[in-house]
Amino acid sequence: MLDLKFIRDNPGLIKHAIQVKRIGLDLDELLQVDRELLELKQRVEALQAERNANAKAVPKVSKEEKPALIEKGKALGEELKELEPALRAHEDALKQLLLRVPNIPLAGVPEGVDDADNVELRREGELPTFDFTPLDHVALLDKHHWADAERVARVSGSRSYLLKGEAALLEQAILTFALTYLADKDFTPLSTTALVRPETLVATGHFPGGEDQVYKIEGLDLMLAGTAEVPVNSLYAGEILPEEDLPIRFAAISAAFRSEAGSAGRDVRGLIRVHEFRKVEQYVICRADQEEALQWFDTLLANAEGILQALELPYRVVQNCTGDMGAGKALMYDIEAWVPSEQLYRETHSCSYLGDWQARRTGLRYKGEGGKPHFAHTLNNTGIAVPRVLVPFLENHQQADGRIRIPAALQPFMGGKAFIG
Ligand SMILES: Nc1ncnc2c1ncn2[C@@H]1O[C@H](COS(=O)(=O)NC(=O)[C@@H](N)CO)[C@@H](O)[C@H]1O
Fold this sequence. Notes:
Blueprint: H1 4-9, H2 11-20, H3 27-57, H4 66-98, E1 119-124, H5 137-143, H6 149-156, H7 166-183, E2 188-191, E3 195-196, H8 198-204, E4 215-216, E5 223-224, H9 229-233, E6 240-242, E7 248-257, E8 276-286, H10 290-310, E9 315-319, E10 331-339, E11 344-353, H11 357-362, E12 365-367, E13 373-375, E14 377-386, H12 390-396, E15 404-405, E16 419-420
Parallel strand pairs: 2-7, 6-12
Antiparallel strand pairs: 1-9, 3-5, 4-5, 7-8, 8-14, 9-10, 10-11, 11-14, 12-13, 15-16
The structure holds 5'-O-(N-(L-seryl)-sulfamoyl)adenosine.
5'-O-(N-(L-seryl)-sulfamoyl)adenosine binds near residues 348, 381 and 385.
């Protein structure tokens, strides 16, 4: 959400952001509701002033004049009551419209329609060459009986997964490695629930718009978040933090649930796109200082790259274009790891800077200089997400005999093993 005064003063800038981010919002409608609401408020204030003046006059006039003034007071009260519903309706409409105003992309963000227009910034790591025919991750899981996909599909339907034996240990090891890696970078580890109240999804910006991606719990005012960003972002909702408490840095591990509505037919085999997965989420709340915030953006990116480098996975960094960055982002980079069987890079991380757009929706403030409260700036990036990262991991580290090599950095988390399978 952006500041209403900023929107009034910069309609052109906002309309451009709406257009390049392909957001379905008519800013003129919002500005019209805003004007009508201001007029209604002025009318209410004038009537209240008149009614107050009238009430003050009653005791000062003669007995004969009193009834007329009392009548007038009643009529003014009636008129005020009649304005109430319109006032509330306009306030609600304006609030809903404001929640859909996108953040302004930073200068230099490439304009584009979708991920095909994202810009590759750099590639890291040697692509693997195999002196044997490499298997894809599904074949590798089957070869070692690590998946049991048919049985879990019977139990949990499509886009479900199960990992057995050393693959289960590998998934856990990668999560613990990432959490430890980030803790060593002074990110406070958190283990959070995915059960959240609906308003926390409005606070992050997932709602309005992403309702069909989220599982709801029948009969409860709770939903299942698709990322720990949601519970963590609302942890301090409504508070005014002391400035010295910033920056707050979390590495939050949680389950993540996504309906993947609209992804029908995409990545239906294997581990890339499932309904429930686990993620270590990096999250930063910092002062409303873009220069500082962009340094945190670089830190979040470097952390994720450090984790992928430790896992010895080749990857590339891309800058998301305006059509692929979502409403709330001012800046966004994806990291994509190499998947040999597809001869493609596939997204494993998403790094975002949101300015104060998220904090304004969340009511996330700190007491800045001069004691004035300021909305904070927020950033997030994936630390690691499983099982998706197992796809490049298994494929890049497969040996001719089907065993999987464990990179040195991960071995301590795998009981010292250099290979599994
Ligand atoms: N349906 C899914 N199945 C498996 N992994 C997923 C799924 N959806 C997302 N992920 C993983 O989670 C990562 C982050 O998801 S994201 O939507 O791109 N971004 C976020 O959730 C941000 N909070 C940063 O983590 C993705 O890069 C991907 O690695």
